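User: tokens in, sequence out, please.
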């Protein structure tokens, strides 16, 4: 699995050291970002939800708690680093998994990150098991699929998926309530979703046949329930006609 990590540290050398430790010892961390002050931290959390945060408490423009309080639903696992032990109690209010006093050794940080990744893996496993058990105990129409990206694990009702679009080795999912980008090929999802009335109408598109609202007279495109126009390859027209006819 892949894990996203944010390092929050106003000391450039300290930030680089933490980044080097993470990148050298944890290949599963595929997205490593850095913030050096409260403003950069706030901007990052507004658009990303890193699974792991390694954060200093005292930054040049204030305490990092000021920003975390603005994101009450933040579910990142946080490892705090600081020279001030009096902040330990407040740190654990923010889902802190550990609290490292500076100066800390590489081995101490590696140990804490290993513990954190084990917890993240366990949570991912539980979410996937919930989906599996749901699918085993419900009818096909309410089946779910797990779509994972760097920031979140999305549990999606298959019936809410309108279509999926290939983007090299990535796949964009367009659902009734959200859009999700996944780092897997469309071919992978074609195999998974074909039993649930999904059809590869084009090299770059996989559509939910239940969402087809109309077909252009030329047969070159279909209109879905959200008014999206999805192209249809010439070689797929006859098969599509037979499936929706």
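Assistant: Sequence out:
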């Amino acid at each position: 699995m892949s894990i996203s990590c944010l390092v929050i540290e106003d000391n450039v050398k300290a930030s680089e050291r933490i980044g080097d430790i993470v990148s050298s010892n944890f290949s599963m961390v595929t997205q490593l970002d850095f913030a050096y002050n409260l403003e950069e931290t706030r901007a990052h959390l507004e658009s990303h939800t890193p699974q792991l945060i390694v954060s200093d408490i005292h930054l040049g423009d204030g305490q990092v708690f000021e920003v975390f309080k603005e994101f009450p639903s933040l579910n990142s696992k946080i490892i705090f680093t600081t020279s001030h032990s009096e902040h330990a109690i407040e740190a654990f209010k923010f889902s802190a998994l550990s609290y490292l006093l500076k100066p800390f050794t590489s081995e101490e940080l590696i140990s804490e990150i290993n513990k954190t990744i084990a917890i993240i893996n366990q949570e991912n496993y539980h979410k996937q098991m919930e989906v599996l058990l749901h699918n085993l105990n419900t009818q096909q129409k309410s089946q779910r699929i797990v779509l994972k990206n760097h920031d979140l694990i999305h549990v999606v009702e298959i019936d809410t998926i309108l279509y999926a679009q290939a983007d090299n080795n990535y796949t964009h999912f367009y659902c009734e309530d959200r859009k999700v980008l996944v780092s897997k090929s469309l071919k992978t999802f074609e195999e998974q979703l074909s039993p649930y009335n999904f059809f590869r109408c084009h090299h770059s598109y996989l559509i939910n046949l239940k969402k087809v609202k109309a077909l252009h007279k030329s047969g070159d495109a279909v209109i879905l329930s959200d008014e999206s126009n999805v192209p249809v390859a010439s070689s797929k027209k006859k098969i599509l006609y037979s499936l929706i006819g």
